[in-house]
Design goal:
Layout: E1 4-9, H1 13-22, H2 25-28, E2 30-36, H3 39-49, E3 53-57, H4 65-75, E4 80-85, H5 90-98, E5 103-106, H6 111-158, H7 164-173, E6 182-190, H8 199-216, E7 222-229, E8 232-239, H9 245-262, E9 267-271, E10 275-276, H10 281-293, H11 295-298, E11 303-305, H12 306-309, H13 322-333, H14 336-353, H15 357-377, H16 382-386, H17 402-442, H18 450-457, H19 461-472, H20 476-494, H21 499-505, H22 511-522, H23 526-536
Parallel strand pairs: 1-2, 1-3, 3-4, 4-5, 9-11
Antiparallel strand pairs: 6-8, 6-9, 6-10, 7-8
C-alpha cells in the first residue's frame, strides 16, 4: 500500500534531525517527505508535497504553528495535524486543538510516544482511505451504471419493448425528461463509403457524430436528445407543433453539410413520422429506418423523410425482425439478384430449423403480410402481385415442397420489386411535371420559391430539390431563371413592351437586376438583344 507522506516543521534543526533519525517511518507506513524551519516555509512545502500528516512545533518565527494549522485546515482539510508544545504553551495548545488539530504532544518529544501517535493516525488514515475508496467505488459504479441503464431504457423504448405505462416511470427513475407532446425520431447514418472500415473506428466515428449533433443541432420550438442506437445516432426531437417538421428537415440537411465540412463525413438522416408522445417513438423509429433504406436511391448525405417516399405508410408498418427488414430493403431498393438472394436465404433458414408444418405456415403468412404492406405503402395493388382473386389466405398446403414455396415467393417478390421501381419512376415523373406546370403558371411572381412550390405539392423542400435536380439536370432556381429568361426573350422579340414591364412580367421587381441576370445569361443587355433581333428582321 502507498505510504502516507509526513511534513516535519520545527525551527530547531537538531530536533528535526533527531525525530527524523529515531522514527522508523517505513515500518509505520509513512515516509518523511519534507522538513521546514518555520510556518511560511512549511506552507509552501505543503502546497508542493500535499502531506497526509504535518508534525509542527507551536512556537516558531515568521509564522507560528497555530497560524500554520489554520492555513492548512483550509488548504489541506484531510491532513492530520500534530503539534508539539511545552508546558507553558498550554493556551496555545488549547487553541490548536480547537482549530482541528488531531494530536497534541508535550515536549520533550520521545520516540515511543510519537510512534504511538503515528500508529493511531495510520489507522485513521487507513479507515478514511477505505471509506473514500468505497465511496468512490459506489459513485463510480453509479456513474457507470446510470448511463448503461439509460442506454438500455432508450434501446427498449425505441424498439417498442416498453409498455405505455412503463415509459414515464422508468424515465423518471433514470432522470430522463420525456414530456408529453409531439415527438419525432431521426436516425443519422455516417456515410463512410466502402465497407466502413474497422469496427473500432466506426464506433469512434459514431461517438463523434453524436457529439457533433448534440453541439450543433439548433431549432427554435424543438428540443432534442441524441443517443447511439444500433449503428446510427438517434435524434429524438420534441416538436412544438406539426409545422416544425419541415424546418427540422432543413436543419438536418444543414447539419449533414456542416458535418462534411467539420468531420469530413457526410451524414444521411432518415426521419420517421410524427408520433403522439414518447411512448410511440418506436413507430417513428421504424419509419426513420425505412427512410434510411432509400439512401442508396437518393445518394446519401441529406435528410430523407419517410412521408415523402411512402406517403401511404402508417405507424403500424413495423419490421422489427431482421429477416423482414432485409426482405423489405431488397424488394424496395435492391437488384433482382439481391431479392433472389434474400428469399433463398430465408428459405434455407426455414429448411434448416426443422419447424413444424404449422409454424412454417405462420412464417409464410408473415412473409406474405410483409409483401402486402410493402405493396400498399408503395401504391401497388396487391392483386397485381398475388392475382385478381387474392384474399390474403395462403396455405402452406398449397405447395408440395419448400422449394416450390421458395419459387412462388421469389416470383412475387421480383414482381413487386419491378412494380415498385416503375411506380417510383412514374411518381417522380408526375411530381416533376407537376412542378414544371406550377412554375409555368407562377414564374411572374417575384415570391415564387421552392418552399411555396413544395407547400403546393406537399413535399419537403430538401427532398424535392434533390429529386428535381436529378431528374431535370439543373436546380430549381436555375430552372426558374431559365423559364423567366425564355419568356423575357419572347417578349423582347415579339412585343414592344418596355424593359421594366418585361422585368415585372418575368418576376423581377428591380429592372436593373433583371438586366444584370439577362446579360449574365445571354452575354448582352436586353436592349442590345432587342436591337440585334430587330436588325436581323
Amino acid at each position: 500500500m502507498e505510504e502516507y507522506r509526513v511534513l516535519l516543521v520545527d525551527d530547531e534543526e537538531e530536533i528535526r534531525t533527531g525525530i527524523g533519525r529515531k522514527i522508523d517511518w517505513s515500518s509505520l507506513g509513512f515516509v518523511l517527505a519534507g522538513e521546514a524551519g518555520n510556518g511560511e516555509e512549511a506552507l509552501e512545502l505543503a502546497e508542493q508535497l500535499q502531506p497526509d500528516v504535518v508534525l509542527t512545533d507551536i512556537k516558531m518565527p515568521f509564522m507560528d504553528g497555530l497560524e500554520l494549522c489554520r492555513h492548512l485546515r483550509q488548504s489541506l482539510p484531510g491532513a492530520k495535524l500534530v503539534v508539539f508544545s511545552g508546558f507553558d504553551d498550554f493556551e496555545y495548545a488549547r487553541q490548536a486543538m480547537g482549530a482541528g488539530v488531531s494530536e497534541y504532544i508535550l515536549k520533550p518529544i520521545n520516540a515511543p510516544e510519537l510512534m504511538e501517535v503515528l500508529a493511531k493516525l495510520r489507522r485513521q488514515l487507513d479507515e478514511q482511505r477505505m471509506e473514500r475508496r468505497d465511496m468512490e467505488t459506489l459513485r463510480r459504479r453509479y456513474d457507470e451504471s446510470l448511463p448503461v441503464l439509460r442506454e438500455l431504457f432508450y434501446t427498449r423504448l425505441l424498439s417498442g419493448q416498453l409498455g405505455a405505462g412503463q415509459v414515464q416511470d422508468r424515465a423518471a427513475r433514470y432522470e430522463i425528461e420525456l414530456p408529453a407532446g409531439l415527438w419525432i425520431a431521426a436516425l443519422v447514418h455516417a456515410d463512410l463509403g466502402g465497407d466502413g472500415g474497422e469496427a473500432g473506428r466506426d464506433e469512434l466515428i459514431l461517438l463523434s457524430v453524436q457529439s457533433f449533433l448534440s453541439e450543433h443541432f439548433v431549432l427554435e420550438g424543438c428540443t432534442a436528445q441524441v443517443l447511439l442506437y444500433s449503428d446510427t445516432a438517434a435524434l429524438l426531437v420534441q416538436l412544438s407543433g406539426p409545422d416544425r417538421l419541415y424546418p427540422l428537415l432543413e436543419e438536418l440537411e444543414r447539419l449533414s453539410l456542416l458535418s462534411q465540412s467539420y468531420l469530413g463525413i457526410p451524414l444521411t438522416a432518415g426521419v420517421g413520422t410524427i408520433c403522439q408522445g414518447p411512448e410511440e417513438l418506436h413507430r417513428s423509429v421504424e419509419g426513420a429506418r425505412s427512410a434510411l433504406d432509400y439512401r442508396a436511391l437518393t445518394g446519401g448525405g441529406r435528410a430523407i423523410y419517410i412521408g415523402d417516399l411512402e406517403p401511404q405508410s402508417t405507424a403500424d408498418l413495423s419490421f422489427e425482425e431482421k429477416d423482414q427488414r432485409l426482405l423489405s430493403a431488397a424488394v424496395k431498393l435492391g437488384s433482382p439478384e439481391e431479392v433472389e438472394q434474400v428469399v433463398r436465404g430465408l428459405m434455407e433458414r426455414l429448411n434448416q430449423t426443422g419447424l413444424s408444418l404449422s409454424k412454417c405456415h405462420l412464417f409464410l403468412l408473415e412473409m406474405v403480410t410483409c409483401l402486402v404492406r410493402l405493396a400498399r405503402s408503395g401504391g401497388v395493388g396487391v392483386e397485381e402481385i398475388f392475382g385478381a382473386n387474392f384474399t390474403g389466405a395462403v396455405s402452406i398446403s398449397d405447395f408440395s415442397s419448400l422449394e416450390e414455396l421458395g419459387r412462388w415467393l421469389g416470383e412475387r417478390c421480383l414482381k413487386l420489386h419491378a412494380l415498385l421501381g416503375k411506380q417510383r419512376t412514374d411518381s417522380t415523373w408526375r411530381l416533376v411535371e407537376q412542378a414544371k406546370e406550377y412554375i409555368a403558371g407562377h414564374y411572374a411572381d417575384e415570391q415564387l420559391s421552392v418552399e411555396a412550390l413544395c407547400a403546393h405539392i406537399h413535399l419537403s423542400p430538401t427532398y424535392f430539390s434533390t429529386l428535381f435536380k436529378r431528374e431535370v439536370g439543373m436546380s430549381f432556381t436555375a430552372y426558374v431563371t431559365q423559364v423567366r429568361m425564355d419568356e423575357a426573350v419572347r417578349l423582347l422579340r415579339d412585343t414592344d413592351e418596355k424593359t421594366y414591364r418585361i422585368a415585372e412580367k418575368t418576376g423581377f421587381s428591380d429592372p436593373n437586376y433583371f438586366s444584370y441576370v439577362f446579360k449574365r445569361h445571354f452575354g448582352l443587355s436586353p436592349s442590345k438583344f432587342r436591337a440585334g433581333q430587330r436588325g436581323q428582321g
